[in-house]
Design goal:
Layout: E1 11-18, H1 22-33, E2 39-43, E3 60-61, H2 78-81, H3 94-104, H4 111-130, E4 136-138, H5 140-143, E5 144-147, E6 150-153, E7 159-161, H6 164-178, E8 182-185, E9 188-194, E10 200-207, E11 210-221, H7 230-236, H8 239-242, E12 245-246, H9 255-262, E13 267-268, E14 274-279, E15 304-307, H10 321-333, E16 340-344, E17 362-364, H11 367-373, H12 379-392, E18 429-441, E19 444-445, E20 452-454, E21 460-466, H13 483-501
Parallel strand pairs: 1-2, 1-11, 2-8, 11-21, 12-18
Antiparallel strand pairs: 3-7, 4-7, 5-6, 9-10, 10-11, 13-19, 14-18, 15-16, 16-18, 17-18, 20-21
Length: 502
């Protein structure tokens, strides 16, 4: 047998948190709140790139509630801002939330972890607001549609962090700093250290000062998935996703997953799956940090979406965009050139979310003139596709309702559009490009309800906890919007609490 390595520690802490996104900072605040005196956050990125994927998020928070007025403490001025505010909100029970998770993952969401997420979701968001110091606001530009004199809100998606992901990240850092949590930037953790009993006892770190080691009673991994690592994307998800644009931080290279598995952690969940959002195809390999989430192109439910062969390839009206965007982004990646065009007419352009304003659309007074301008190889097929769609579409404008699945569908198409299928016939016509932008990966580590990392021997690895995108098993093939941030904060809170007290 090999003797355990000796690791002289330069400093010792109660809890070390690896990463500095929403989940990691929730863990650090929770650890401090629960009695850990010395909490260290190690962020690989420099200060100007801090915060992981949180910075790119829309900040929307999906959580369960029985009565819309339960939201009042989070958004106390909402009734003054929006007429009939509570009338446009449906209750979103724990059963509703868990049902949505089961539906979009085809029943494969981890039964224990999904219940932990759903049952704690409301309390987590209120804790984020009260303890985390995160101000909230109605998510009007993301999940509301005006109908008459009120806003109708997507189920479970009413509240977001003020100033979206940028505000969420900034608030977490401010709270952590006010609590005396030590945050060190440019510190890349390269190895988890263990003692002679196999307990995680610290980390090895590389920084501009060289290689250091820090001791800890517990370590929390909250440093994201492998979405920015082209080799891991290609290996685990496939070559199409290997070449995808990254909608998020370039620093999520799978380091935490690699380190944990090196000491025996069990990989868990759908390593071949990812959250791949439709984004503008005009951006570079990484969506610009200053644009945050404004590269998204999620109003496709009101469009016809054509690939470069001039063919439709998804049912654009299968469900609301907030339940289909994560899988449709990946669907675009499977199309020729990993590109699609979203085509709208004047009946629906007023419904486009504000994020479309970050691109200039291609426009024309005729469908033929529009198609001529698009990067479509088979323009004749594109015209046939639109003509066939219009012949199968519905004239029932009185039943068209963008606030819900309205059942206004096509008739006779092999690939139907099952909701919001009105004719594309009111010029001028506009088109926006789209590709799949990978946000985070679904594969992670197996953890238990206490956020402890489980080893390949099915026993918890003492002293090691996990949260955020690194938690495996919650999502398969698809993802309900707003769940990631709440999951991150929920398991971050649990991880921090248990790291401080176990």
């Amino acid at each position: 047998m090999f003797a355990p390595k000796e690791h002289p520690m330069q400093d010792n802490f109660d809890v070390i948190v690896v990463g500095a996104g929403n989940a990691a900072l929730a863990a650090s605040v929770s650890a401090k709140e629960n009695g850990a005196e010395r909490v260290l956050v190690l962020e690989k990125a420099p200060r100007e790139m801090r915060g992981g994927n949180t910075h790119w998020s829309g900040g929307v928070l999906r959580f369960a509630f029985d009565d819309p007025r339960e939201l009042g403490p989070l958004v106390p001025d909402a009734e003054e801002q929006f007429e009939n505010f509570y009338e446009g909100i449906q209750p979103y029970t724990r059963g509703d939330y868990h049902g949505d998770l089961m539906r979009v993952t085809s029943g494969r969401t981890d039964p224990e972890l999904s219940r932990v997420l759903v049952d704690n979701s409301k309390d987590t968001v209120f804790w984020m607001n009260k303890t985390g110091g995160i101000k909230m606001e109605p998510a009007v530009t993301l999940s509301a549609v005006r109908k008459g004199n009120m806003m109708v809100w997507a189920r479970g998606l009413v509240v977001r962090a003020a100033h979206e992901g940028v505000g969420l990240s900034r608030s977490w850092f401010q709270t952590a700093e006010e609590m005396g949590i030590d945050i060190r930037y440019g510190h890349a953790v390269t190895e988890l250290l263990t003692d002679e009993k196999g307990r995680v006892s610290g980390v090895k770190v590389r920084s501009d000062d060289g290689v250091s080691t820090y001791g800890a009673k517990s370590v929390v991994l909250g440093c994201g998935g492998f979405e920015a690592n082209v080799q891991m994307r290609t290996q685990h998800i496939g070559p199409l996703v290997g070449g995808a644009k990254v909608r998020g931080t370039p620093h999520n290279q799978g380091d935490g997953l690699r380190m944990a598995m090196q000491i025996g952690a069990m990989p868990w969940g759908q390593w071949s799956g990812c959250h791949a959002t439709p984004i503008s195809a005009d951006w570079g390999d990484f969506a610009p940090r200053e644009m945050t989430d404004r590269s998204n192109r999620l109003s496709y439910v009101y469009s016809l979406m054509l690939n470069r062969k001039g063919l439709r390839f998804v049912d654009e009206g299968e469900d609301g965009a907030l339940f289909t965007y994560a899988k449709f982004g990946r669907a675009i990646l499977a199309e020729p050139g990993a590109k699609a065009w979203q085509i709208f007419d004047q009946k629906v352009v007023h419904l486009l979310e504000p994020r479309y304003q970050t691109s200039q659309p291609i426009t024309s007074d005729t469908i033929e003139g529009l198609i001529d301008q698009l990067d479509i190889e088979d323009k004749a097929q594109a015209l046939r596709t639109i003509t066939e769609y219009n012949a199968a579409a519905n004239d029932a404008d009185d039943r068209y309702d963008p606030t819900r699945k309205d059942g206004v569908s096509t008739t006779g198409l092999a690939l139907p559009k099952t909701n919001w299928a009105v004719k594309l016939d009111k010029p001028p016509y506009v088109a926006y490009s789209a590709t799949g932008g990978i946000t985070f990966t679904f594969g992670g580590l197996k953890v238990n309800k206490d956020a402890q990392v489980i080893g390949t021997d099915w026993r918890a690895i003492n002293g090691l906890f996990c949260c955020g995108e690194m938690v495996g098993g919650l999502f398969y093939d698809n993802y309900p919007a707003g769940t990631g941030l709440v999951s991150g904060a929920t398991f971050g809170r649990i991880a921090g609490r248990n790291a401080a007290t176990m």
